[in-house]
Amino acid sequence: MNQQHFNAVFNRLTERRREVLLKLLANEKDEAIANFLHIQKSTVRKHREEICKLFGLNNEFPDERRSKLPELISLFAKYKPELLNQNTSEFPQTENFSEDKTISENPDFVGREDAIAHLNNLVKEGAKVILIHAEGGIGKTTLATKWFELQGLECLELRVGSTPQNLNSVEDWVRIKLINYFKVNPEQNFITMLEQLKIQLKTRKIGVLIDNLEPALINGAFVEPDNSYYVELLTVLAHQSVQSVTLLTSRELLHEPDVIKLKNFQSYHLQELKDDAWEDYFASRNIIIDTDALHEMNRVYGGNALAMSLLSPEILRESQGNLKVYWQDNRDDILRHLTLEKLVQRQFNKLQRDNPQAYKLLCRLGCYRYQYIPVIHEKGVICLLWDEPNERKKPRFLRDLKDRALVKFSKEGYYLYEFIREEAIERLKLTNDWEKSHTEAGKFLSTLIFKNYQTISPKITCTKVNDTQEQIYLNIENAETAVKQEMNKQETFALEVVYHAMEFYEAGCFEELRKEPRLLDNAFFQTVRNMIFEYIYCYSDLGIVLYKLALTTHRLGIIDEREGKLIENKKKFEYCQRGFKVSQGFFQTALVIATRVKEDKLMINVLLSLACCYYFRGISLHELGIVSHQIIKNNESKEAFEESQVNLEKALKIFTNLSFEQQMKEVEQAISSLKISEQSCSTFIARFLI
Questions:
Q1: Where are the beta strands (DSSP E) in 186-336?
Q2: In 3-state terms, what secondary structure has residue 110?
Q3: CA spacing 20 to 30 A to 98: which of 33, 161, 548, 631?
Q4: Position 418 pLDDT exceeds 80
């Protein structure tokens, strides 16, 4: 990064990011920064990550956890050393900061510093007419009016109308503005009136807002007979000689050739609001922030600004300002607010009128979940257009959805925001396409399983050595490299097929799905079912083997201690604890899969094994604390016992729901024994302290 690039990035930083940055450069910790700025510690971390990304300091691998802060400090030591180690929260003022500060002080206008800067750059580069494009409710009109306000421009607004049948006359608008605003007697001919308007705009710097343009558009083209009027007006507004700036807002992209070719016409896609903007907005309303709930809400509503503003008073009124409580109570009814529901419905209705095939595709896309597989490859979208005979047209309908911002996309694929998907599902259920859509989607998901096929068992290298104990050490080390907490692609795709089938057959859990009569002879589903069982059993068995290896190593360590072999003793106890940790990792992966398919019996088995693992780890640490007189080990032992009890109680709760009386008694006895062990551990600690 050179000095020019550095300065450009630095000057575009938002007010909040500049505050966080200066604190970081002063070597302040995340917790201190969070307390000073009255934000969550996790929000500070997110700001830090985004700042590093903006300055090109990305980790080579997405899951790499190494901090980039030292590199960020080195970068500032090179280009702005005066900012290092300052104990202040204010940056030296520059000409670019005044607008940002004005924005940040307005609690109703958050998270749009980058958008304002982008519009500024477009105008500096010569743009006279800018189309702000995004889905409904994202904040296009708010951004446009705020930009005019920041520029100190008077704004002339052209109200387009609400439907193609009641569009306002462009000719009448020009005539009225010439008379009432410019005090000019208009000519009768429309083209001549536009020349009069151009003369006025050459000498007067004003703003023009053409808001909610989409009623005047059908598939990106102006509706007749108003098309020529809009084209002629925009041609004048985009002329090089005028001093005005025109902002158009629209849910649809404009594809009129005579407008697109204009030299001074630009389009700008407005992104959704990020988590930190929602947090700032809610915090300004004295809402108690919960980071996890806020992140999930922002994801579900796609960072929609209207949703943010509508939900805010509801959170205060219904949940006393507690975001976590509100979301727990309402996460299953995300379109409960009538305004949001109407907003989504109108977008669907317009698409249905203008482009029936694209509308059908949007509804059918509701059959995907976008959860564990967050994006769908283009092939998975195109397969839902089974009734379109022209193969060349199929990608165009997907493009039509992109142009209306109804489907989101990244380089990996396409997805729907949850509140769009909810409407898509409801409409899909009213058609004859419900079963066919799920069938085609299921076929596509099945191809992903086999394309990403890999050995189910984690690869654990077994190098043979003569020394038995060294062999155990090697097994534990190799298992450490194989253990993971996240599922691989094949496991993810298999689970997605199960969820897909559960939703289609309205099954509440995996067990119900397996009993579905229509699936009993389905070879593909039986394969997926066997894969799910194999995953869980595989990880559970690996966990059992590892904690048994750890127990063996622990017992040998006790013998070494009694024989005075302190070095051997220390090594064995180290590997013992590593073995328990790896074992817990395998059990956790098995539990994740069993939980996600809602398979109670499998969950019980894994929870019991996990409880045993924690229990034996607690015993091991307890004995180690006795022989080594280490308070730390005994405290860790107590924590292990507590974890064991938590997992046993989870299993007991499931047993209670299933009414397995004999098994319930066994688990209750195990919990009782566990409490005795925990009490003995606590008693020892108390005696040692005395």
A1: 207-211, 217-218, 221-222, 245-250, 265-269
A2: coil
A3: 33
A4: yes
